[in-house]
Amino acid sequence: MAEILPIKAFRYHEKYKNQMEELTSPLFDVVSTKQREALYANPINSIHLSVPQGSQPAQRAKQLMDKWKREKVLVQDLEPGIYVYYQYFRMPGQEGETCRKGFIAQIKAYDWEENVVLRHENTIAKSVNDRVELLKHTKFQSSATHGLYEDDAHTLESYMDQAITNPLYDIEDYQGVREVLAVIRDKETICEFVKLLSEKQVILADGHHRYEGAIAFRKEMMASNPSHTGDEAYNFHMMYLTNASDKNLKILPTHRVFTGIDLSSKELLEKIEAYFIIRQLNDVDEIEELILHKKWAFGLMMGEEAYKIRLKPECIQELPTSIPAVLHDVDLIVLHYYLIEKVLGIPMAKQRFSDEINYERNLRKCLAKVVSKEASFAVITKDIAMRQVLEVCKSGHTMPQKSTYFYPKTLSGLLFASIEEDEFKFSYDMFKK
Q1: What is the Cα–Cα distance from 234 to 264, expressed in whole angstroms?
Q2: Are 257 and 361 a contacting pair, CB within 8 Å?
Q3: DSSP 236-272
Q4: Over the stretch 229-286, which tens digit does the pLDDT of each residue have?
Q5: Residue 209 scores a pLDDT above 90
Q6: Taking the model in full, what pTM does it have?
Q7: Residue 80, preceding peptide bond in cis (omega within 30° of 0)
Q8: In the predicted model, what is the mean pLDDT of residues 176-199?
Q9: Which of 106, 85, 82 is nearest to 423 (CA)?
């Protein structure tokens, strides 16, 4: 199954250790415009490598990366390690603190057809192309994707708990999450991690675009290398791995915001009524609570009005046979087929290319965009259960893009992984039992 290796990581020079809160950056899709401006204002913030700006962003990132290496802003560890990564957080209304435990390693960038790394949602084509271009130029990874493995015995947790008592970094991030990173370099312990994952499939939780970029890059390099062995640096991809059996995994919803829809509120409601039961709400604050426990239920924001819409039960029989039974209970499938395809006329196959569909995780921001007429309307969704994510992945099917939001997001810049051959190479066979 999954082949993982420890990482011979690049990290910020030790002299920057006390500045790590200013040098790390959140993933681009969870940060506000003002936060981005502040991050870009710091000339050595990791965002300049993870999401470079300018007319030729990939080339610019390459130049900057080379400069940072020369000036020892970034330095490479002499030996590879498994990087233990714990995130401590509280959800609204939660009294106790939650800790999500995981580790960062290199994993082979398996193609989907190899059935080792499984996906659960579709991607947005342009975002994949951007990731491929960046990887081609830099051969450098500044943010780990997030993968899940299943281990009811929690075999690795004791090793991680021990390592985290001696952290490399212990910082607070942009969302108030405590981020702690440690490293395991002991050969025998690393072998336990490698062995366990060699018996597992991995479910991609977050970072589908970056991972697809790694697949595309690997394929391109394989095709141009007649001596390909599978052990070259370009085969590998940096991933944060957590145990799907851990009760502390949190999945939050991602709402849909629509722009450029040429329908009046009256026309839209009339079209929706063909498939959904509509109930107008007195207060937008009622939306999340009223849809929470209802199957196939969503919130609808138009202007300053709010509605609860719920699929008419008899309509579920109209789902095409191309949508398998395992997806019929997934709310977002219902939303993307009945509302986006049938009502708005955007076919399922074309939705990931559509500029009319945008994604927002904050309900208040959805409301502000609708009231200001920046958006035509918004649809409020609810979270998906881990059980459904696992079922869909194992079925070989996928959900619509941006179906899950695993909270908290990982940070960019805590460490970097190079897939430049001279920087990657090491006697990795010593970690394989």
Answers
A1: 51
A2: no
A3: EEEEEEEETT-TT-EEE--EEEE-S----HHHHHHHH
A4: 999 999 999 999 999 998 888 888 899 999 999 899 999 999 999 999 999 998 888 8
A5: no
A6: 0.84
A7: no
A8: 97
A9: 106
Compute CA distances 240 → 83, 228, 237, 317, whole Å: 9, 26, 10, 39
pLDDT of 126 strictly over 70: no
Q: Is 107 helix (H, G, I), strand (E, B) or coil?
A: strand
Partner residues linked to 279 by β-bridges = 308
Contact 433, 195 (CB under 8 A): yes
- Please give the CATH topology (third level) of the domain spanning 254-382: 3.30.1760
Q: Do domains 4-250+407-431 and 254-382 have the same CATH topology?
A: no
Given the candidates 3.90.1680.10, 3.40.50.720, 3.40.630.30, 3.90.1530.10, the CATH classification of the domain at 4-250+407-431 is 3.90.1530.10
Residue 125 clears pLDDT 60, i.e. is over it: no
Question: In whole numbers, what is the pLDDT of the chain averaged over residues?
Answer: 91
Q: What is the CA angle 348-350-355, rounded to 5? A: 120
CB 117 within 8 A of CB 239: no
Residues β-bridged to residue 310: 277, 297
Task: Taking residues 342-348, report their average pLDDT.
Answer: 93
CB within 8 Å of 285: residues ≥ 6 apart: none
Cβ pair 419, 140 in contact under 8 A: yes
123 and 130 Cβ atoms separated by less than 8 Å: no
**Pairing between β-strand 405-407 and β-strand 98-108 as defined by DSSP bridges:** unpaired
Residue 127 confidence (pLDDT) = 65
What is the distance between the alpha carbons of residues 362 and 112, in angstroms, rounded to a whole number?
31
Bridge partners for 180 per DSSP:
86, 170
Strand partners, 282: none
The residue extents of the domains of the chain are 4-250+407-431, 254-382
Look up tokens 């008592």; give the residue: 165
* Residue predicted with more confidence, 328 or 339: 339
